[in-house]
Amino acid sequence: MYNFGDCMTSYIDPYEEAKKQLRSTVELLGLGYDVYEALATPERVIQVKIPVRMDDGSVKVFIGWRSQHNSALGPYKGGIRYHPDVTMNEVIALSMWMTWKCSLAGLPYGGGKGGVRVDPKRLSIRELERLSRGYFAALAEYLGVDLDIPAPDVYTNPQVMAWYFDEFSRIKGGLYYGVVTGKPVEIGGLEARIYSTGLGVAISAREAAKKLLGGIEGRTVAIQGFGNVGYYAAKFLEEMGAIVVAISDSRGGIFNPRGLNVGEVISVKEKTGTVVNYDKAEKKITNEEILELKVDVLIPAAIENVITEANARNIKAKIIVEGANGPTTVEAERMLTEAGVIIAPDILANAGGVIMSHIEWVNNRIGGWITEEEARRKLEEKMIASFNNTWNFWESKLDKTRHNLRAAAYAVAVDRVVKAMKLRGQL
Ligand code: GLU
After folding, report:
1. Nearest Cα to 90, choosing from 127, 64, 115, 118?
2. Cα separation of 260 and 237, whole Å?
């Protein structure tokens, strides 16, 4: 599991952070407290008990949640994470961020998120299957192609999505491909989904570097987290000509000022379980040190609350591109904004995954028509449009010494949700 040492000593509640962000956006847009209240409260939060028959014959109970934050723009959409530390408030915060992410990307979706408190690395494959089926079965009445559409998140993958799809279809009788996205290609998934979040992060970094540094080529990048998001972000940035100088995973990191070979690093991780065993790096670094390197672009792509007031002053990157959800606290962002660091926020930078999920869902509903090239082109177009939309709002409407790009992204996203709620008589 991730170990971020000192950064995690005082617990920061992600839901409180999410509400602070919402509150300042509501104020920025000149909206009333009623709007804040309506948006701060999730529409529904479901907690389920999941008893799982373990391989040794015993029964172990797990707890899971699904938070359905807002459906003004469409069915709830968002991933499900398996993590030993997941809490209900974290899931609620993540569901609120999904509402803004889908809105900013112009998707016809609301926001949702799920979580199961489990360390999946300690389960056998069959136990994981029983847990996944049990979780989905317990929630089945609240999910649906036009109601709530889960997807992968931290430590869940296409195989887990396949079990979800199968379980839901079994319960309801029929084949409901559109009830979950991020599926394997054999059962309605798109090849591009697996790399789409990472590609979107790389595109955001490239667009930000174009505006601020004259381009991404030759620029140095540090990436914290080498899961699905971090790996593909590194791979695409390397292809774009950036120099990936540092990479870390839950066990630690590696640094080489002349650049790491991303393909070699991933094969070492696949073979030995961690990037730390890559022997062509100049030195090993910790997960705290990677955040404080003197690089052009820093990409936190692991978990929440790693950039806090405790380390914000030590950050030397010019641009932060948030691959993870919620990696920067509100107070840290205030300090970074004052220092002139530009942040491409999570709801913008990591939207590639849900954008591709939407393409997959549409494709499922029209019976499979979209080609991989079309899917990838649409993703690139949407990421660039969202980036420019956010950037233009920020440049033309906000005081850049006080507000970062997040304020612009939130303003655009919240405004769209508020308009939909007003039209529907919910506000
Ligand atoms: N879990 C991803 C996210 O945080 C993807 C969600 C989706 O595809 O629905 O954006």
Report:
1. 115
2. 12
Closest CA to 78 of 23, 143, 135, 14: 143
CB 189 within 8 A of CB 158: yes
Distance CA 289, CA 279 (A): 19
Structure confidence by residue, pLDDT tens digits, 34-53: 999 999 999 999 999 999 99
pTM for this model (two decimals): 0.96
Q: Domains plus CATH for the chain?
A: 42-189 (3.40.50.10860), 196-349 (3.40.50.720)
Burial class (CB in 10 A: 0-12, 13-18, 19+), 67: buried
Q: Are 180 and 162 in contact (CB under 8 A)?
A: no
How confident is residue 1, by pLDDT bands cut at 50, 70 and 90? very low
Q: Give the count of beta carbons closer than 10 Å to the beta carbon of residue 146.
A: 10
Considering the candidates 19, 113, 183, 235, report the single residue annotated as catalytic.
Answer: 113
Pair 317, 290: CB distance under 8 Å: no
Per-residue pLDDT at 160 exceeds 50? yes
113 flagged as catalytic: yes
Encode pLDDT of 318-335 as tens digits. 999 999 999 999 999 999
- CA-nearest residue for atom 8, ligand 1, is 354
CA dist., res. 234 & res. 225, Å (int): 10
- Ligand 1 pocket at CB < 6 A: 77-79, 101, 151, 153, 181-182, 325, 350, 353-354, 357
The span from the CA of 248 to the CA of 227, in Å, is 10
